[in-house]
Amino acid sequence: MKTNKSFTKRLKITKNGKVVARHPGQNHFNAKEGRSGQMANNRSQLLTLTKKVSQRYITTASKSKN
């Protein structure tokens, strides 16, 4: 199965093997949001992926980081 590289580039794998990504859709339309909401969406979120999904995305992501 081919890896979806556009999604793989958005992931970061921590040293303990956790998968971290940014909240989606936070590049614009933030003017009406409160400051705390803006800052909450600025933080990274921990992804929990199924085994099938992680096999597709994580295998090449971890190889490309090394």
Instruction: Indicate the mean pLDDT.
Output: 77
Placed side by side, the strands forming the largest sheet appear as: 1-2-3
Query: What is the helix tally?
Result: 3
The 3D shape can be described as: elongated
- If you consult CATH, what is the topology? Factor Xa Inhibitor
Number-wise, the strands total 3
CATH class: Few Secondary Structures
Write the layout of secondary structure elements.
Blueprint: H1 5-8, E1 12-13, E2 19-22, H2 35-42, E3 44-47, H3 51-65
Antiparallel strand pairs: 1-2, 2-3
Would you give an account of this structure?
By secondary structure, this protein is α+β, with helices and mostly antiparallel strands. The protein has a single domain (5-65), classed as Factor Xa Inhibitor (Irregular). Helices cover 41% and strands 15% of the residues. The chain is built from three helices and three strands, in the order H-E-E-H-E-H. It has helices at 5-8, 35-42, 51-65, and strands at residues 12-13, 19-22, 44-47. The protein has a three-stranded antiparallel beta sheet with strand order 1-2-3, with helices on one face. Strand 1 (12-13) and strand 2 form a beta hairpin. The radius of gyration is 14 Å and the shape is elongated. The two termini are 21 Å apart. The model has no long low-confidence stretch (mean pLDDT 77).
Concise synopsis of the structure shown:
With 66 residues, the protein is α+β, with helices and mostly antiparallel strands. Helix content is 41%, strand content 15%.
